[in-house]
Amino acid sequence: MSSAPYDLWYWPSIQGRGEFVRLFMAPAGIDYRDRARDLDAQALVEDMEEREERGGFAPYAPPYLVERDSGFTIAQAAHILTWLTDRHDLGTGEMETDLHLIQLQLTITDIVAEVHGTHHPMASSLYYDDQKEAAAQAAKAFREERIPKYFSYFERAYGVHPGPFAAGGKWSHVDTSIFQLVEGLRYAFPQRMAAIEGDYLALMDARDAVANLGGVASYLDSERRIPFNEDGIFRHYEELDGQ
Amino acid sequence: MSSAPYDLWYWPSIQGRGEFVRLFMAPAGIDYRDRARDLDAQALVEDMEEREERGGFAPYAPPYLVERDSGFTIAQAAHILTWLTDRHDLGTGEMETDLHLIQLQLTITDIVAEVHGTHHPMASSLYYDDQKEAAAQAAKAFREERIPKYFSYFERAYGVHPGPFAAGGKWSHVDTSIFQLVEGLRYAFPQRMAAIEGDYLALMDARDAVANLGGVASYLDSERRIPFNEDGIFRHYEELDGQ
What we know:
The structure is a homodimer of 243-residue chains. Chain A is mainly alpha-helical and 243 residues long. The first copy, chain A, has a domain at 95-214: Glutathione S-transferase Yfyf (Class Pi), Chain A, domain 2 (Up-down Bundle). The first copy, chain A, has 10 helices and 4 strands. A 4-stranded mixed beta sheet of chain A has the order 2-1-3-4. In chain A, helix 1 packs parallel to helix 4. The interface between A and B is large, with 43 and 44 residues.
């Protein structure tokens, strides 16, 4: 039996929002069982249903993390990251800086939701093919207006402390999330990213510094890293990209 | 000079995300200056620009709250609410419950973003009239699928503790936010809400209990409560409503 202290529950076939949690646990050296990947998607659906029937407080949606000893369960990617940071004493030791990092994480949450909106502007429940025209316009606005607005903001935020990370020399959940955001946008919008990356050198440095953290390269090279695909948040549809 | 300990900065002509903060401060009895309402929208734009030029950590967008004594500034509605709860000792005293409340607040953040998406599915920067057809489909999916999914979830969450509030007998930021969510959806989708409210009695009880908290009625009756309008998050477009 595994002695991993945590169970992570997330859809087994996509990176999705679960990946922000996985990418944090890799350099933190936090061990976990990835339950729906060990089992299957049906097991996740059943776990969600059981929690509902039990009548206690339950997550709205995956990802959620279970502390196996206590059964304590926490959901919402930004909330999980904040909680793990506190639990494993991975904060900066500076209250104000830690609060700023949470604030940045919530702004990353916002842009990630907008990324999903580029291919599903009308409804998650409709097929992409049934909202392609709206998606083309949504993606254009996202590429031309939203990426520069968010990235300029993040770039300035990285300028507050000297060093490759948002808090300076010490990495945090913000950095692993920025890594995933950059990787995801490179996958989804390669033309656009190639055109603008040079304007956001602090973000690209942070991305590279995360790639070099202990535990990250081996995670990325392993089968645990699900490849990007067209069922996740970051999807590559050629017609949605452009310089 | 006002001795209010906080400055709130938010757009002066809409409730928007700032209202979730205002509605928390009313029953908490926390005094604040509502800066852009005392001054104007231009003052908010200038304050944002000054913060950018100063080079320190700055908010991505309003609302943000400034502790006047220290200058400490915090943004993201859910983050502001969590911080104020901690700062003013308004939590339940039960760590696990407080964490669940934050998780619920982040799920409220998600549905509020989806509400905005019903009238601006393609881009915030485009006029409603230029995305009316996509909006009609987005609103239909939101009314028929998303409201019941979120509301069923929140209704179950309210069932965990006996009492009108999410944590039982003691109100929290979740309850004032549920109040605003119900009020906003009643304004935006009156036909739909009339048809389904009876299925969510715990939520409606929570809404009523918040209306009866000290400080709330006087706030709602005052000029400080901006009326709902078609520039905010909750907009009433007759063509987007339906049973």
